[in-house]
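Checklist before submission:
- one chain only
- standard amino acids only
- sequence pasted in full

Submission:
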Amino acid sequence: MSSKTQGGKTPFVSIVVPVRNTERTIETCIKNLTAVAYSNYEIVFGDGGSTDRTPTIIEDWQKKDPRIKLVRVPNCPNPGTARNAAIDIAKGEIIAFTDGDCAPAVDWLDKIVEAFQLDPKIGGVGGNVFTLRTREKCFAEQFSEDFHMLGYFGESRYLKEYDLASQFITTCTAAYRKEALQDAAKVLSKRTNVTEKEKRFWEEFPFTQYFNPWFLTGEDHDLFARVQKAGWKCYYRKEATVKHMHRTTKKAVLRQWYWYGDARPHLLVEHFPKHLRIRFFSRTLLGRFPIHAYINFDAYHLLLVSLILLALSTVKNLVFPELFANITWFPWLSLYLTYSILGIGLLTPWSATLLALIVYSFNRHLKRFIHIKSKKRRVADALFLFLMNTAFVLGGLRGCLRYGSFTVSESLV
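Returned file contents:
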């Protein structure tokens, strides 16, 4: 299981890259991949049905570099399926992953292989992510850089057992031993409740199911959890870095995090028993429950709830005072809506409390960007982080309807 080989040779590594319509970034990605200093590797692209010039660009590079391979997966439903097809033809003892909008550092593979050599039971290694700006003035890219999007802080370390709120290995900078991937696929194959829809899917896409093909997003969470269930350790190596060319519009970033949130209920059902898990800031309560339920409450949720209550109380006094005065069937809500920052012209105890909570929780958002010198930029980033959190939580609520669980996702503050 060790990444070391006899005769002092370096282990052969296959870099797997799923792509689909990545014409904007694929040239930069390939330039960086072919410039990696590690000497013993191949690059396997899994194209999931691109309609732009992505496959053509890869084929042009293939003519110049024999290490590059391309497998096409028409009508591919998700990146996980494209990765599965690429892994099936990969020859590496270690399978590394990045994306078509990423640019790995020159020593990226060296740092990953060094991490595997620390312990033969390390089955997966993750790295750090930084932002590669492609436009001089682009708020979405600036925010991603300020937020350290998809990246982690802290020193290199072993990763804890998978939890929805814990660090995991993201596939834009990741590597697994081929043996660990095979063990993870066995965990998935042990499922007994296979539907007819799944059987038809596997007939159309007959690849080994290393990545669970039923995850549109969150497949990297799922793989990380299954590798650990198979008995392997996972390690974070901060020096194994890639630069990510993130989304370039606010709408695209919000959409990305909406679908990230959508995966949370699915992950809850796949990897946790039927419990009610309540996480209040840093404390977690756990109890038996008839369905999978995960409720997180921290600075973002405090800000959201405080804003909603303040807005309701204002509407009550200014717009519908008589209507709300007759709400006797909901006594506690009627009591809360009795007070208003507007309507009576004075700051009441209730509205003052709400304002204090809003200031406190928004300040927590601002602290996420304490390293940014410009106050105006910090405020803009904090406001967008609030919107991104909202998209993330709304995606989680949508997923609840699909998977029969209840999730109020953790915030990103």
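Reviewer check: The chain has a mean pLDDT of 88.
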